[in-house]
């Protein structure tokens, strides 16, 4: 993987690319979850780089992509588009893990013609229109409920 960077007015976004020698190969973009960085997908990169061009990146405010101002998923999507432009990549297969599904979905919304597929790993639909009133009520109270558990108990319950 070759480490590269995209300089924006909001901050520098770091990404890594393994370019397949075949110019007609498809490109997979892996987007990590909230507690991770680009290295989260190293085993998948090893596997897929034989047949695909592969990009991983540190989403703004994560890993090396700090500092970064005015964070929004929309800005992330536009930054990802600039990365693809910089690399001269026309179409992508998006893989988003948990929070990584949100910039992926935002990208697909703004640049649908660039997306060949989207693989959602443990993520949810982006936007409140997909959720019931009860879902939203529970989400608003997650922080309060989480305070009832120690950090150790939360980690163990999430692992199970």
Can you tag this structure with a few keywords?
single chain, 160 residues, alpha/beta, 6-stranded mixed beta sheet, 6 helices
Draw up the topology in text.
Layout lengths: L1 E6 L4 E7 L8 E5 L10 H7 L4 E5 L15 H15 L4 E6 L3 H10 L4 E7 L11 H8 L1 H5 L4 H9 L1
Parallel strand pairs: 3-4, 3-5, 5-6
Antiparallel strand pairs: 1-2, 2-4
Helix pairs in contact: 2-3
Write a short abstract of this structure.
This protein is an alpha/beta fold and 160 residues long. Helices cover 34% and strands 22% of the residues.
Explain what you see.
This protein has helices at 42-48, 73-87, 101-110, 133-140, 142-146, 151-159, and strands spanning 2-7, 12-18, 27-31, 53-57, 92-97, 115-121. The chain is globular. It has 6 helices and 6 strands, in the order βββαβαβαβααα. α2 (73-87) crosses α3. The longest helix is centred in the middle third of the chain and has 15 residues, at 73-87. The protein has a 6-stranded mixed beta sheet with strand order 1-2-4-3-5-6, with helices on one face. The two termini are 33 Å apart. By secondary structure, it is of the alpha/beta class.
Distance between the termini: 33 Å
How many DSSP-defined strands? 6
Which structural class matches the secondary elements? alpha/beta
Mean pLDDT: 94
The helix content, as a percent range, equals 25-40%
